[in-house]
Amino acid sequence: MGHLADVDTRAAAAAIMQHIGRSSSSRGQQEISLSLTNAASGISVELHHPASGESATPAFIEAELKKIVQIVDGYEAQKIPILWSSVSPG
Asked: Organism's domain of life (predicted)?
């Protein structure tokens, strides 16, 4: 079984930024929802970042992806399925 630790978070962040750039004319403030599911274990992790003053930069997105990867890998090691979400207050 592959681990999410093998995910290239930099490439994933770049792909997300490309999508955001095409779908929004305002690059400063965007609402971002990320979700990763490991099909083998059924573990799903979601992260939601509402549009705010914080800019959605590639580095920000990559950092969020790394958090998700660490959480999923940690729970895979314990074999505990979990749905995790982080929602910042608007």
From this structure: Bacteria
Tokens at 6, concatenated: 């093998």
Per-residue 3-state assignment (H helix, E strand, C coil) for 14-76: HHHHHHHHHHCCCCCCCCEEEEEEECCCCEEEEEEECCCCCCCCHHHHHHHHHHHHHHHHHHH
Q: Identify whether 13 is part of a domain.
A: no
* The amino acid at 67: K
Instruction: Report yes or no on whether pTM surpasses 0.85.
Output: no
| Residue 64 identity (one-letter amino acid) | E
Q: How many domains does the chain have?
A: 1
pLDDT tens string 62-76: 887 787 777 777 766
Bridge partner list, 30: none
Give me the domain span that covers residue 68: 34-90
